[in-house]
Amino acid sequence: MTRNASTSPGGANRSRVTISDVASALDLTKSTVSRALNNYADISEATRLRVVRMAERMNYQPLSQAQAIKTGRTRSLGFVLQLGDHDAQRPFLAEFLAGLSEGSTAQGYTLTVASADNDTHLIETFRTLSRDRKADGFVLPRAMIEDPRVKVLRDTGVPFVLYGRQTDPDGCCWFDIRGEDAMRDAVQHLARLGHKRIAFINGGTIYSYAKLRSEGFHAGMADANLPIDPKLISENAVTLENGEQAAGALLDLARPPTAIVCAVDHVALGVYRAAAARELIIGRDISVVGYDGIREGAHAQPPLTTFVVDSRNAGVELATLLIKRIRGEALDTLRKTVPAVFVNRGSTGACPHP
Amino acid sequence: MTRNASTSPGGANRSRVTISDVASALDLTKSTVSRALNNYADISEATRLRVVRMAERMNYQPLSQAQAIKTGRTRSLGFVLQLGDHDAQRPFLAEFLAGLSEGSTAQGYTLTVASADNDTHLIETFRTLSRDRKADGFVLPRAMIEDPRVKVLRDTGVPFVLYGRQTDPDGCCWFDIRGEDAMRDAVQHLARLGHKRIAFINGGTIYSYAKLRSEGFHAGMADANLPIDPKLISENAVTLENGEQAAGALLDLARPPTAIVCAVDHVALGVYRAAAARELIIGRDISVVGYDGIREGAHAQPPLTTFVVDSRNAGVELATLLIKRIRGEALDTLRKTVPAVFVNRGSTGACPHP
DNA sequence: GCTATTGCCGAAACCGGTTTCGGAATTCAA
DNA sequence: TTGAATTCCGAAACCGGTTTCGGCAATAGC
């Protein structure tokens, strides 16, 4: 109850050069130095340069906490882990976080990570984090078609960027990988190999990527002049088990597909299982193509033909976009998509029934 | 060049209740409120309670940045991703981070994640992060036998906790899972099944866990009165490929082992590969036990007998310890180890040559 | 009953920045 | 040459806290 102040001087006044140090070194006041460093118009170019040079020379870094209490911004990006999420995405997460922090630090920002176990807690976390100025903005992984996070943040005016796209672009900016193009290319690849009965196992229906990939699959089928058999369309599969089950159903049809396009690699690996159980050889009896580029795919037998996405890079891009957004750049310049890269390995082959 | 101040009022004065609000609501000065909330001795118990209650009622939260500029502490824990690390640990990382942020937020702390691509950059990151008060302390994953991070942080007096142990406990506190006990138990388990020629494939030699697990293996062999055959000891294997190679060498010996203890699950899966290549059935011709509890192990054929570690919980524990450490609790009360839990699945069986 | 403590709180300085305001020096217009 | 408009910087207030210092009232000591 009598635990007074700090027990140790611990790291407090460890020789930070302050704005006053810079000011007195130049025989100016700290207000002038501050304005010079923040590009105020009422500072002459000459002294602005003097100040900037001296700050550089003295290795002066403004203490972001001190700035924050006046400006409200603390140069940090927020990311909230959603604990309830299925673990299938966990491997990406590490890469993704690495990219985020890399992109942040590159611009002098820091990354604040919090966690929430459900949706209401999630929204609450956004609120407290920005109220307490622990984050100037947020990056939201896995855009959903109806995204509650977007609603809240858009209304409160807190900057955010999406990994994934949004139908209503109002207030949104994003980075995304064009999964729809990948799905279309997958169909094209299979059609060239002579496949006609091509099945599609889509991912989680609540996510916007699923909608896009479905569109891509349909576009590819249309391009190849192939009819869509509704029996060959499955959805909402994200795990290996989901994939095994969906593929089992497909393979047990009276007229089974000769190729299966999966929106998610883990699902493709489930197809491997279902095929093995039916003594079908992947790449000969049945062709499979995935999407994501997980490591296990490369090590599977045969190695999985897929589209690899660079999660690390996505993190870097999103951090960069968010910082621009926080600095007030125009929204419509802050939307970017890139293609996934096709990796043709061993899980596809010529159609067995030409 | 004329980019003045903030483009938007964005989130600055969004209705925060300040210490002055609380003070005037009670007709006190903010200095009194501050001291009351920080348990200063010169505040009467009566007013202390009044203040605490009112603060509670008004939902007052001190702005950590404002506190930081005076106290030097900002209620945030630091974690630095080491990018160069082999990816084998990536799956844990996500769980681990989830635990860290969970443990942090539970105590009103926040988690700051940065990244570094090499050792010098890593040390530099520690420095800037604590200099700029982005972190009050650090959690260091994967303790090494000679750990440069420990050296630096110990010398500079920055609080830190280790995931893993240290021979020289000076200035260190940690949380760890007793891998040595697991290795000993693994040997015991195999010995009971009649195995005598038991091999050991250890993990990365620079890490302290490897030393401990080796000791545990030796202890187990001693307990079972089994001799150590140096030919059956392999080390520095962390990936599936490492494991495949090491196991291949073991299995090709004139007198191969009948069981293999692996310090790391990925390596155990490599043993599966090597066994399959030699048409040996896991659990019958050769027994394998792993350590870590990775998901792939549960799905392997046969499911891998292993010791599962709860990375999430480790994160929670470490965050808790670090916060205590920052608050100045005695070091020797801040060291904790727990056992891994044995999961007996299908990869071990009776010795084929009794 | 008077002084010396002690308990308790207010006043004010401070932390490291930002921002408003005002005024001196210079330039411009007449 | 003078008045007005600019240019540029210092002074001071402020942000939301913490901490030092000093003083008043109540208690204790004699």
Portion of residues in beta strands of chain A equals 5-15%
SSE ordering of chain A: HHHHEHEHEHEEHEHEHEHEHEHEE
Number of strands of chain A: 12
Distance between the termini of chain A: 83 Å
Count of alpha and pi helical runs of chain A: 13
Order of strands across the biggest sheet of chain A? 2-1-3-4-5-11
Low-confidence spans of chain A: 1-13
Q: Can you walk me through this structure?
A:
The structure is a homodimer of 354-residue chains. Chain A has 354 residues and is an alpha/beta fold. Helix content of chain A is 43%, strand content 14%. Chain A has a 6-stranded parallel sheet, with helices on both faces. Chain A has a 4-stranded parallel sheet with strand order 7-6-8-9, with helices on both faces. In chain A, helix 5 crosses helix 13. The longest helix of chain A is centred in the N-terminal third of the chain and has 17 residues, at 90-106. At the A-B interface, helix 4, helix 5, strand 2, helix 6 and helix 12 of A face helix 4, helix 5, strand 2, helix 6 and helix 12 of B. Strand 2 of chain A pairs antiparallel with strand 2 of chain B. Chain A binds a DNA duplex (30 and 30 nucleotides) through residues 5, 16, 18-20, 28-32, 34-35, 38, 40, 42-44, 47, 62-63, 65-71.
Short key terms for the protein model shown above:
homodimer, 354 residues, alpha/beta, disordered N terminus, DNA-binding
How are the secondary structure elements laid out?
2 copies of one chain form a homodimer.
Chain A: H1 19-26, H2 30-37, H3 45-57, H4 64-71, E1 76-82, H5 90-106, E2 110-116, H6 119-131, E3 137-140, H7 148-156, E4 160-163, E5 174-177, H8 179-192, E6 198-201, H9 208-223, E7 233-234, H10 240-251, E8 259-262, H11 265-277, E9 287-289, H12 295-299, E10 306-308, H13 311-326, E11 335-338, E12 341-343
Helix pairs in contact in A: 1-2, 1-3, 5-13, 6-7, 8-9, 10-11
Chain A binds a DNA duplex (30 and 30 nucleotides) through residues 5, 16, 18-20, 28-32, 34-35, 38, 40, 42-44, 47, 62-63, 65-71.
